[in-house]
Write a structure and sequence with these properties.
This protein has 57 residues and is mainly α. The protein contains three helices and no strands. The mean pLDDT is 93.
Length: 57
């Protein structure tokens, strides 16, 4: 019944920062390390790599 009313279940998704594409490009080119990219994005390590994988496809 809750689903019929439009209640959303589960954990809310994490929004990626506006400059995430720029951070990813710098990371892929080797300008910054993965640790620095994770710090700059403000995401956790797991979320960073999950979002990176989604954008690579």
């Amino acid at each position: 019944m809750a689903k019929a009313r439009g209640v959303r279940f589960g954990r809310p998704s994490v929004a990626i920062p506006n400059n995430f594409i720029e951070i990813i490009n710098q990371y892929k080119r080797g300008i910054i390390t993965s640790k620095k990219a994770i710090e700059m994005s403000g995401l956790t390590r797991g979320t960073f790599y999950r979002k990176l994988q989604l954008l690579s496809n």
